[in-house]
Amino acid sequence: MTHGQMAFSRRTYHPIERPEDAADNQGVAALRSDTSPEAFACWQRETRLALAHAIGPPVRTDAVPLRGEIVEVHACDDYLREKIVYDVEEGLATVAWLCRPARSMSVPLPAILCCHGPGPGKNPLVGLMNDGSPCAEYHKHMAIRLAQQGYVTLCPDQRGYGECSSFPGGYPTDAELARLDAHYLRTHGRSLLNLNVLDAFRAVDYLCSRPEVDSRKIACFGIADSAPIAAILTALDPRIIATILGCFISDQPGLPGVSTLPALAFSRLDLCALITPRPLQVQIPDACGFVPAGHAVPGAEHLDALYRLCGGESHLHIDRFDGVVEIDFPGITRMLASYCSTG
Fold first, then answer.
1. Is residue 20 in a domain?
2. Which of 36, 68, 215, 282 stands 20 to 30 A from 205 (CA)?
C-alpha cells in the first residue's frame, strides 16, 4: 500500500550523453604477506593516501547540501519503504530506497548501506524489477529482510543503473558501462568507479542525517561489481564500522567489471588489506562463476595472514558457503549482530 506519492522534483538523474570510447587502466604490485607489522602499517598509510588522492575529496554537505526528499512512502506489514532523492553533486541527484522498521523505536537504529550488484539497479534489493513486478534473485530481498530485523537500509541507484540511467530499461551492459566510464573520464577527469565511491560517501552523509539512524553503527555491503565501491568507501571513511563483500576476494590482479581509477589501480586483495584490521566479512560461494573459489580461497588465506599480522584476526570473517553468484543472508545477519547489533 502506498501512503504517499509525489512527482519528482526537477533534478537531473542521469548523464546527458552516452560516451563512445573506453578508458585504459594500469595495475599496481600486489602486497606481500610476509612483511613486518611496521612495514605493513607503512604500506597502508602510503597506499591509503594514494587511494584518497585518486578518488578525490568527497563532496562536503556544507558546500553542496543533500536536499533530501521523500518522494514515496510504502507502508508494508512490518516495515516502511521510502523512495528518497538527494544530491550527490551540484546539479545531480540520485534515487534510493530506504527501508526501516514500521514500529516506532525509542533509540536510533544501526544502518546498512547496500550497494547493488549487476542488474537493474536498486530495485531487486527490495524485491522488485524496474517495471514494478516481483523479483527473486541473488540479492535475496536483503534490504527488506534487514529492515524487518530492526535495521535501516539505504539502497541507492549507482550511475548508469535504474532511475539514474539513460540506457534502455536502466539495465546497462558491460559495453555501455565502459562507454559511461570513458565519458566521465573525458568530462570529469574521473572514472565511473571513482564517482560511484564519492556518491557512496554522500549516501553515508544521508544516513547520518536521518534521526532514526545511529551514526556510530553504519555498515556497508557490496557484491561483485559493487564490492570495490564498498571496499574503497570502508578504506577511506571511518564512519563505516563493518563491511561485507560478496563474490570479490581473489588472488588475481585487477577489479571486476569496468572498474578503473585514472593512473592508479588496486587489486582486490590490496583494497581488503586497506580495511585491515577493521571488521570485514568476505563471502565465497563455492560455485561462483564470477570469482571461482580456486581464486577466492587463496585470496582469503592471504588476507587472513595480513589480519593476523596486525592482531586483528578475530575481525576477519571468511564465509564460504554452497552457492553461486549470491549473498549468504544468514552470514550477513551474523556479521551485523556482532558489530551493529539492534539491541
1. no
2. 282
Give percent above pLDDT 70 in the chain: 87
Query: Is 17 domain-assigned?
Result: no
How many Cβ atoms are within 10 Å of 173's Cβ, its own excluded? 11
Which residue blocks in the chain are alpha helix, DSSP H? 37-55, 142-148, 174-187, 192-209, 227-236, 268-275, 293-309, 329-339
The C-alpha atoms of residue 119 and residue 13 are separated, in whole angstroms, by: 18
One-letter amino acid of 57: P
Give residue 30's identity as a one-letter amino acid code.
Answer: A
Cα-to-chain-centroid distance, residue 90: 22
Half-sphere exposure of 173 (CA within 13 A, CB side): 5
User: Could you give the CA distance from residue 262 to residue 265 in angstroms, rounded to a whole number?
Assistant: 8
φ, ψ dihedrals at 121, nearest 5°: 110, -145
Structural domains in the chain (count) = 1
For residue range 222-254, what is the model confidence (pLDDT) as tens digits? 999 999 999 999 999 999 999 999 999 998 887
Does pLDDT of 10 surpass 60? no
Provide the 3-class DSSP secondary structure of residue 166. Answer: coil
Cell readout for 149 is 530485523
Q: Are 176 and 19 in contact (CB under 8 A)?
A: no
pLDDT tens digit sequence for 65-100 = 999 999 999 999 899 999 999 999 999 999 999 999
User: How many other CB atoms are found less than 10 A from the CB of residue 70?
Assistant: 12
Looking at residue 315, its amino acid is H
Residue 232: domain span: 2-8+26-339
- Residue 208, CB half-sphere, CA atoms under 13 Å: how many? 13
Does residue 16 form part of some domain? no
Q: Which residues pair with 12 in a beta bridge?
A: 92
Bond prior to 108 in cis (omega within 30° of 0): no
Distance CA 205, CA 118 (A): 24
